[in-house]
Amino acid sequence: LADLERAVGETSRARAVLELAVARPDLDRPEAAWKSYVDLETRLEAHPEEDDAADAGGAGENAVAALYERLLERTRHVKVWLAYASYEAAAPGEAA
Fold it and tell me: Distances from the Cα of 43 to the Cαs of 11, 57, 90, 96, in angstroms?
């Protein structure tokens, strides 16, 4: 459903759907919801013109990093750490 909302340009609704999904403790595959959410925010970071909430502030600066940090509060899985490190290493113009 979130992919459909994004495809029709409703990024705010896509975010809302994904927020509901990642908040559910009983998901069969929570990693899929988190990955979709990170992928959405990564795409919108690269293409801010696609963000229908950009005029209202969008998800804000560092939305992808904030999602990774939220996910790391739930799990300490090495794949999450590696994905977050890869994202941070690829971030343009950021000093470490």
Answer: 11, 16, 14, 22
Contact 87, 68 (CB under 8 A): yes
CB 11 within 8 A of CB 40: yes
DSSP string, the chain: -HHHHHHTT-HHHHHHHHHHHHH-TT-S-HHHHHHHHHHHHHHHHH-GGG-TTGGGTTT-TTHHHHHHHHHHHH---HHHHHHHHHHHHH-TT---
- Contact residues for 12 (Cβ-Cβ < 8 A; gap 6+): 52, 53
Residue-wise DSSP of 40-62: HHHHHHH-GGG-TTGGGTTT-TT
- The pLDDT tens digits for 3-62 are 888 888 889 999 999 999 999 988 888 888 999 999 999 999 988 988 887 654 555 568
